[in-house]
Amino acid sequence: MELSVPENHKASHFERFFHWIKLQFTRHEAWTLKAARRVPLFALFAFGTLWVWLFLPMIPFGILSVVLLEKAGVLGAIVNMVLGIGALAIIAPWFFRWYFICTGLMLGRTKMAQSKEDDVSDRLERLMGPKAVSESA
After folding, report:
1. In terms of Cα–Cα distance, which of 44, 46, 45, 53 is closest to 99?
2. What SS3 state is found at 19?
3. How many CA atoms lie within 13 A of 44 on its CB side?
4. For a tag site, which of 12, 83, 115, 123 has the least CB within 10 Å?
5. Helix residue ranges per DSSP H, the chain
6. CA-to-CA distance for 99 and 110, rounded, in angstroms?
7. Buried b / exposed e across 12-22, counting CB within 10 Å, b at 16+?
8. End-to-end alpha carbon distance in the chain
């Protein structure tokens, strides 16, 4: 796995770790699309496997949210509400796009799935480099 960074910049451990996470998530998205296209009736179950990538990193935020509600009273509730609405604004478009892709596959429509597949393959190409993608295909 090679990072695409400028010649004079050496990637730190954190940059390599986050690059690895992005690569694994993108590979999982590609697998999800393949599985959903293979068995469209169970497309939502394949999509459900992507939620692991969201829920595991959110556990510390959930614990912080509970502590904030217990200790900070009304101010904690306001902060939780603002953070919750912000997170919803970020997650909702991602969720509904995947939901409509899966629903479309169940109904025999593949246009959105093909568009998403093109996006995912472009991202994989950027993350891995064009040589690595053509070797893995």
Report:
1. 44
2. helix
3. 8
4. 12
5. 13-38, 43-48, 52-106, 111-128, 130-136
6. 13
7. eeeeeeebeee
8. 16
Residue from 8, 13, 52 nearest 29 by CA: 52
- Which residue type sits at 118? D
Q: How many CB atoms lie within 10 A of CB 47?
A: 20
The CB density around residue 92, as the number of other CB atoms within 10 Å, is 10
d(CA 120, CA 137): 13
Give 84-109 pLDDT, tens digit per residue.
Answer: 999 999 999 999 999 999 999 999 99
Q: Tokens standing for 3? A: 């990072």
Taking each helix axis as running N to C, give the angle between helix 13-38 and helix 111-128, from 0 to 180 degrees, rounded to the nearest 10.
150
Q: What value does the CA radius of gyration of the chain take, rounded to a whole number of Å? A: 19
Split at pLDDT 50, 70, 90, the class of 129 is: confident
Which residue in the block uniquely carries the two structure tokens 């590979």? 27
Distance CA 119, CA 69 (A): 39
Residue 12's pLDDT band, with cuts at 50, 70 and 90, is confident
